[in-house]
Write a structure and sequence with these properties.
The complex is a heterodimer. Chain A has no helices and eleven strands. By secondary structure, chain A is mainly beta. In chain A, the strands form two sheets. In chain A, strands 2, 4, 5, 6, 9, 10 and 11 form a seven-stranded mixed beta sheet that branches. A four-stranded antiparallel beta sheet of chain A has the order 1-3-8-7, with no helix packed on it. Chain A is globular, with a radius of gyration of 13 Å. Chain B is built from no helices and twelve strands. In chain B, the strands form three sheets. In chain B, strands 2, 5, 6, 10, 11 and 12 form a six-stranded mixed beta sheet that branches. In chain B, strands 3-9-8-7 form a four-stranded antiparallel beta sheet, with no helix packed on it. In chain B, strands 1-4 form a two-stranded antiparallel sheet. In chain B, a hairpin with an 8-residue loop joins strand 10 and strand 11. Classes of the chains: A mainly beta, B mainly beta. At the A-B interface, strand 4, strand 5, strand 9 and strand 10 of A face strand 5, strand 6, strand 10 and strand 11 of B.
């Protein structure tokens, strides 16, 4: 039973460039979440999918951010025109509607914007 | 107001001793879930334990137990027989309600160091 995987694990980019991250959830999980975590803080919610439908977006998700889950399986998170303030760990989690609807997290993608 | 408060930025415990990590929460929703996650220096968030607001008994998972005091709105994590591998950041999190919003709200975490 493989866990949540994320790619890449690390990304260094220059300000103004676009970046895209990928998340592969646990295979039977129909819910997928993106969070952002800055140093010394807990993760903050960005967006949530149930199957391919994006059901919730945080106000943290500015117009430069877009997320997709085209076939209800893997998801991508794209950041356009990156800014230094986008530097953070981007965490993906998945869950299955059951007792607790527990979210299981991937290893994260650490983004550094120079 | 903070929804999840973890007042201990850092904690030390001697190996094989028990330790309690504090968490208080704030919600007006009668239905909610409380979670604890462990984050080692590698970065991955590891699920430890879950407590539902309607659960009558405190949750336990191996060496982890959750001391749930609903009236005080606290959900403290107790780790028994600490091991060196327990050294990590620990986060308390809450999910409110049963509607479409499924996101977790996290506290700021407690850094636990287990001393040999």
């Amino acid at each position: 039973d493989t866990g949540v995987s994320q790619d890449p694990r690390h990304k260094i980019t220059k300000r103004g460039q676009n970046v895209t991250f990928r998340c592969d959830p646990i295979s039977e999980h129909n819910r997928l979440y993106w969070y952002r975590q800055t140093l010394g803080q807990g993760p903050e919610f960005l967006t949530y999918f149930q199957n391919e439908a994006q059901l919730e977006k945080s106000r943290l998700l500015s117009d430069r951010f877009s997320a997709e889950r085209p076939k209800g399986s893997f998801s991508t998170l794209e950041i356009q025109r990156t800014e230094q303030g986008d530097s953070a760990m981007y965490l993906c989690a998945s869950s299955l509607a059951s007792r607790g609807d527990t979210q299981y997290f991937g290893p994260g993608t650490r983004l550094t914007v120079l | 107001a903070q929804k999840i408060t973890q007042t201990q930025p850092g904690m030390f415990v001697q190996e094989k001793e028990a330790v309690t990590l504090d968490c208080t929460y704030d919600t007006s929703d009668p239905s909610y879930g409380l979670f604890w996650y462990k984050q080692p220096s590698s970065g991955e968030m590891i699920f430890l334990i879950y407590q539902g607001s309607y659960d009558q008994q405190n949750a336990t998972e191996g060496r982890y137990s959750l001391n749930f005091q609903k009236a005080r709105k606290s959900a403290n994590l107790v780790i028994s027989a600490s091991q060196l591998g327990d050294s990590a950041m620990y986060f308390c999190a809450m999910r409110e309600g049963t509607g479409s919003a499924r996101q977790l709200t996290f506290g700021s975490g407690t850094q636990l160091t287990v001393l040999p």
